[in-house]
Amino acid sequence: SCFCMYDYTRQFEVQVRNDTVDAAFVAEDGTAAPDDMLENWLPTIDGIFDQIQSAIDRSAYSMTIRYNETYGYPMSVSVDFEQMMADEELYVSASGLVILATEPVEDMVVVDNEEAKDTTESRQAELDLNRGLWDSHQAMDYDYYYQRSCFCMYDYRKQFEVQVRNHTVDAAFAVEDGSPAPDDMLESWLPTIDGIFDQIQSAIDRSAISMMIQYNDTYGYPMSVSVDYIEMIADEELYVNANGLEILATEPAGSDPVVQVFEQQESKSVNPAVPLADATSGSHLVGFRTTWTVAFAAFAFGVAGIM
Predict the structure, then answer these.
(1) Cα–Cα distance for residue pair 163/173, rounded to 1 Å
(2) What burial class does residue 160 get, using C-beta atoms within 10 Å of its C-beta: 0-12 exposed, 13-18 middle, 19+ buried?
């Protein structure tokens, strides 16, 4: 909190385009931030870095900063500039970064077929390794948080708590207000963890021009996915964040769900000699970046105090 109007203490989804704050929306109700906020109150990530640099240059009395381990941006900032003065502190939180585009490479790099093949094989190997780790946990009932960024209605860009039961999305609730997701979202928008893996597999199969994936070290599931399928086409990208996984139930001990599915299919198949590879085919949110050259991004920003 700060000694300022309530509107200035809300959490905002900030949309940065070409290194400039282009738009922002209140997280709790989706209302657009006014122009004066875009110009003077809501910063880019670089703007937050500048605030920290200013605090260092001014020899602030106390500073506590927490940086994101993947991208390096400041996730929480607590600065007290003068020990004996009130209302001059800076308290900022930033989270949920989704990188939508990076600065163009100045010199075009021509990739030959062998290099492209190596890239595809590397992506596939990384996916197979992490999907194997995920499968090893045999999770059938679990909850997790999911958010997808897109040029679409605000309701589709909210963060949801997704509830998966028996490998199927059973329910989902918007994190900001607890409202349930409608049936069309459950059926076609909010995936299971396996569904996110499938999206990554599809991107590999389609030879996407750019892919940056961050997998969870413990469970192997994709925590962030950034895919650009075709370089010169807009609004066809995939940007996904997934986190907060809580496994509630696993497959019964001694069962092999893949084999069970195959056995069921085999017993009903006209041709009982269908190979296992065919019966189980089709199986498929960032690290996003290797440099801090972000031109387009979206992130959640909150201010608890001002200078």
Answers:
(1) 9
(2) buried
